[in-house]
User: Which sequence fits this backbone?
């Protein structure tokens, strides 16, 4: 049995979305990546995810003080800690966490080769709920207009 993944759009400003949703865990220190002349894959996000389960088990066994550790870094699987909803037409994506949400809407652009491709760009971001409440789910439902033209 096999499967294939189909790319239907690209996300713009994904780092901006991540930084907005995880502002409380943002750190000033960034890892320096060695620069090479050759093109290489950036595997820093997903290689550490394989070992993440083992590290979580070790951390659960030993108590730690989060207040004294200083600012926390966002985990490699940051999107798994968010609420994500995609509209049936794939023209709206909502990513929410705690009280914050980011809405990305479809925009068509032409690449250098003259092909059109759909990208999802941030159309709105902000705080959705009252203090003490948090987003627990999201859904994108298409609505049909009753106006006649």
Assistant:
């Amino acid at each position: 049995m096999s499967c294939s993944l189909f790319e239907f759009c690209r996300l713009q400003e994904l780092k901006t979305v991540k930084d907005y949703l995880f502002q409380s865990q943002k750190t000033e220190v960034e890892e320096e990546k060695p620069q090479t002349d050759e093109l290489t894959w950036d595997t820093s996000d997903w290689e550490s995810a394989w070992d993440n389960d083992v590290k979580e088990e070790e951390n659960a066994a030993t108590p730690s003080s989060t207040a004294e550790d200083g600012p926390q870094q966002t985990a490699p699987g940051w999107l798994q800690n968010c609420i994500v909803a995609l509209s049936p037409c794939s023209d709206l994506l909502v990513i929410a966490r705690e009280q914050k949400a980011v809405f990305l809407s479809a925009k068509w652009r032409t690449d250098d080769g003259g092909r059109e491709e759909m990208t999802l760009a941030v159309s709105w971001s902000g705080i959705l709920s009252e203090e003490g409440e948090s987003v627990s789910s999201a859904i994108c439902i298409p609505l049909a207009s009753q106006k006649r033209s």
